[in-house]
Amino acid sequence: xxxxxxxxxALGMLGSRAEAQAKPQPQLAALDSVLSDSALDAxxxxxxxxxxxxxxxxxSIQDSPAELAxxxxxxxxxxxxxxxxxxxxxxxxxxxxGEWILMAPPTHGFSSLVYLxxxxxxxxxxxxxxxxxxxxxxxxxxxxxxN
Amino acid sequence: MPEWRIPTEGAERRRxxxxxKWRSSFIAVAVGVPVLALFGFGLTxxxxxxxxxxxxxxxxxxxxxxxxxxxxxxPTLAVGDTVRLSALRGRVVVLNFWAxxxxxxxxxxxxxxxxxxxxxxxxxxxxxxxxxxxPENGKRxxxxxGMTPYPSLTDPSEHTAIDYGLYGVPExxxxxxxxxxxxxQTGPVSDSxxxxxxxxxxxxxxxxxxxxxx
Lengths: 147, 214
Description:
heterodimer; B: alpha/beta
């Protein structure tokens, strides 16, 4: 039963593929443009969500309804459409607003302390705690027992 | 002998307790002081004042249309004319972003009127750029608040505002003769600050010209 069902599904897929191939070229081109548009939109959303809205409190330009944020999104989209990479777009805004414009601080340079600091503190805490625990649980010196 | 040992043990314990207390105090001070110093330093900083990367760099080029010529006796441009920053190379440019809905701009306006008037007819060019506002509102505001002695431009898509890394209005950029941003003021400018910055640039250039001339 399942085998028969799988064959039917496979035949159906083949049929739809053949149908798609039979479609005229302009429709395919339109589909391509829709797909690339949605890919561009997705890429714009990703970049925009990494950039801080300058006139808002803690919002990315993707989430902000402010006009400036909308214009910044439009610039990001335009630059991506022109073939620039997401990194180029980020650099464009960093050159104007500084690294402040990034929603997450960069992982290199001085800002890396934001990520490394807690880890270093945790390691330091574990070391201190281990030394302290060893000291507290160590057996008393022999002369103390003798006394 | 035990009568000797008991007071010795007590003294040792007291000494140990004292040394533990000192150690605890030292750790508390070593951890607490830097943390408090960091908080104290944070209190001295204004989180709204974000350092701009622009000062020292080439000012972004713009090409904006004028919606008000100001009350200059001999206007060099008409309403609708395009102003390009590159055409002003060799002059000190004061670029003030403002809006009719901006309260702080009302407070700043008398300063711009006074200082703008002071430098009218000199090699210093003042330009107002309307931010996130309509030219009609801008004109009405200028009529109400006092017409500037310099032109005002529109930035319909806010591209210039974004190019200058604008956070809000008012913001003022002072651009040197070499086309580099020399100073950025977030918030209203004062007479003394504006004059000092302009004179510094004029003086710098005069000094440079003096050095380079034979």
